[in-house]
Amino acid sequence: MNWEKFLEKNYKKLFVVPLLLLIFSLVVIGYFFNKTGELFYRDVSLKGGVSATVYEKGIDAENLEKFLEEKLGTDVFVRKLGDIATDSDVGVVVEIGDDVDTDLKKNIEEGTGKVLDEKNFSIEQVSSSLGESFYQGLLKAVLISFVLMGIVIFIAFRNFVPSAAVLLSAFLDIVFPLAIIQLAEIKINAAGIAAFLLVIGYSVDTDILLTTKVLKRKEGNIYERVIDSTKTGLTMTFATVAALSIAYFVTTSFILKQMFLIIVIALLVDIISTYFMNSGILIWYCKKKEKNEKFWG
Amino acid sequence: MKSFGVRINLLIVMLVLSLIAIAPKLDVEGVEIKSLDAVSKNQGLSIGEVVKEVNGVKVENTENFIGLLKEASYIDPIKINIITDKSSANYFAQDDLLFELDNLTIKNSKIANIKDGEILKGINGVKINNAEDWEGIRYDLLPSKIVRIKTEKKEYVFQVNKEVEINVKEVSRSNIKKGLDLEGGTRVLLKPVGEKKASDQDIRNLIDVISDRLDIYGLADKRIRAADVDGDKLILIEIAGISKEEVQDFIATQGKFEAKIGNETVFTGGNDVPFVCKEDGTCSGVRACNLASEGQYGCRFEFSIKLSTESAKRHARITEKLDVVAGTGFGSEGYLSKPLDLYLDDELIDSLQISSSLKGSETTDILISGSGFGADQETALNDALINMEKLQTVLITGSLPFQLEIVKIDSISPIFGGEFLKNAVLAGGVAVIAVLIVVFIRYRNFKIIFPMMITLLSEIFIILGFAGLFRWNLDLAAIAGIIASVGTGVDDQIVITDEILKGKEQYFNWKEKLKRAFFIIFVAYAATLAAMLPLVWAVAGLLRGFAIATIVGVTIGVFITRPAFGAMLEKLMNK
């Protein structure tokens, strides 16, 4: 099949896919925000509360949850900590959203019948006011980093439409993973937001490649140049996606898992946002420019 | 010899420099001491010493050390035969005789058959007729063992009658420091609360005082810095091996010490006290222990301090006004009408009678005292020691200018920290392999894969070199950052490869092609830099490790390793 011909005929139709994804993401986010008043479920590090990890096999998470809820009189969330690589039971994570003063360690010892010490017990405690300011601070950081990235793009290309296309593509790369995370009800931690920042830096790589080749090169026609940069860009994306998805399954750390998951989803949707949307906009922009030049020239 | 060209030579130089910065040590042996119990501390062992042998057996690693120490200091229970005026019994004892003796009368008996109030008549075949008989045998009753611990300094030989507790960690094998989440420990974020807002200078003062306090407690393995969260000034402390309770007790208590006569303050901790006697038995120590009340022991400690001349003058001025009250005992010289009251954080901890001879005198030598309590003598002694150390610390460092509230506390288990590290390294390794497989599928050419592999590994190595040079704490987030920057590294190498491979159209020479590739690379670099910069300052810098690892990674990539990759590819493909 001749990809250049295919692209020439269909580049406007391809635009529908990213547009649908964008609408889908915005609807999900809007619905979620309406329902919860939040952008995503926050974990202890961004909301305040206590998160305790017990590294002991054979703890019944449901029983422990019931026991602690009765004992403390507040909502307790207990989840199993498993190692996906070996499919083994590693322990449990106990999370409480409120600021608790009671000795959680003692209560967990009572509920599980295990002796806890510094070797099998880790605890993270954040006051709700600090969690809130971490959250606000990180949202600000995301905003600032998007703006700074935008400035870099505008300086590099000095053209409104192509630069705006890069930013639109990056925007989709952020909102789509966010919508997926909301649907999957995953609790985001501070490192998860760092992953979103990385996505801002990462996802524009392929767009920069595409825009540079289309706008600044003269060899071949525009479709050839788009296809050419698609080959390079897809190799880039697949290499990174392969690396991070394998790392996702290997790692036992929740922090790394969440970061890798967000980046992988963003990179996958980046294929669509770059080659279905950004390339379409660029082709349309170049054709219009050509027409204008012909008309005036 | 053929020259490699500037770009490749630069890479080689950077790799050598990184190796020097990381400074891997191949011949390390033993384990490093992280914390000690009272017995081993008393023998002169100190934190940071490297243990090489226990009872003549070489220490291989931490697990092996724990086993060796347990074996060396484990006391087998021995059989004890006891006879009293009413009954007799045989039982096993390990580190406790299971009874106490008061004037040869049994009390607090935990032995079946033997009740409190019975009179001891014999033990292990030795007749007990008087206190001397008992004193002669009591220390030989319980089993004890000789433990020999050899460190890089000297060999410590001491007798123990219960298990020794020494916590150790692996000796660092290079200059790369592991972050708290990979090594285990406690991280605390403290917020000063007070009537006025803390200024930058206040925060610096607080950090100094806290740092001094931690030094006094022998916690050398610590990091303290100021942190800014949304305009709030906070203090971040990371310490390996300290519990939440200890943090609250030692660091976050304000430690406001005041010595008052009546309502007038004579002196406070810090500047008023230029010298505090500490760890010197002649002028500091627990002096006496006794039964305070039923089931409650009390121990009294004393240590001397020197007052500043200003405080001494204040002392003279205040005592001048006081009356002399006759002493109660025979030959006593009498006391002043008001005592010297010692307050710690507004709580009265002790009241000292002032000798009448000190009335109106500008004395600079003061003896401070206080006490500790407990259900038995040992706990009372420990309590007194802890209280003494606390008071000494407060007197030396002065009080904190603010009360501190703990807003965030994390404690990470050291064992799982170690496993996270192994796991993260494994994750990084498979990520590199996965990248190489994808690239191989695309190009099917070892002349491309080989330089790419060298470049990826060099990038990781040089980032680690930077970590060693600047003594970063490499935490989980930083490892994520390294994996991320390697990810962008691959992107750039693929761009370079594709530009160079387009050999069909020979419009451009090699230089031109690389230049074209580097426009894309530089813009992508600037975008990543722009995206990561805000994170250096966000969330009190807790994610700084990630941000800096990524920024350093991509910077090294763009300026050193990727140009070298272009040069390598040029040489290999152009033959």
Mean pLDDT of chain B: 82
CATH topology title of the largest domain in chain B: Multidrug efflux transporter AcrB transmembrane fold
Characterize the quaternary organization of these chains. heterodimer
What structural category characterises the helix and strand content of chain A?
alpha+beta
Please name the defining characteristics of this protein.
heterodimer, A: alpha+beta, Alpha-Beta Plaits, four-stranded antiparallel sheet, two-stranded parallel ribbon, 71% helix, B: 575 residues, alpha+beta, Multidrug efflux transporter AcrB transmembrane fold, Pdz3 Domain
Topology:
The complex is a heterodimer of chains A (about 300) and B (about 575).
Chain A: H1 3-14, H2 16-36, E1 41-42, H3 44-47, E2 49-54, H4 61-72, E3 76-83, E4 88-96, H5 104-112, E5 121-126, H6 128-157, H7 160-183, E6 187-188, H8 190-216, H9 222-250, H10 254-296
Parallel strand pairs in A: 1-6
Antiparallel strand pairs in A: 2-4, 2-5, 3-4
Chain B: H1 6-22, E1 31-36, H2 38-42, E2 50-54, E3 57-58, H3 62-73, E4 78-84, E5 88-93, E6 100-102, E7 105-107, E8 120-123, E9 126-127, H4 131-141, E10 145-151, E11 155-160, E12 166-170, E13 177-178, H5 180-183, E14 185-193, H6 200-216, E15 222-229, E16 232-239, H7 244-251, E17 257-261, E18 264-268, E19 275-276, E20 284-293, E21 296-306, H8 309-320, E22 324-325, E23 335-336, E24 340-344, E25 347-352, E26 365-374, H9 377-397, E27 403-412, H10 414-443, H11 446-469, E28 473-474, H12 476-501, H13 510-537, H14 544-573
Parallel strand pairs in B: 13-28
Antiparallel strand pairs in B: 1-2, 1-12, 2-3, 2-10, 4-5, 4-8, 6-7, 8-9, 10-11, 14-16, 14-27, 15-16, 17-18, 17-24, 19-21, 20-21, 21-26, 22-23, 24-25
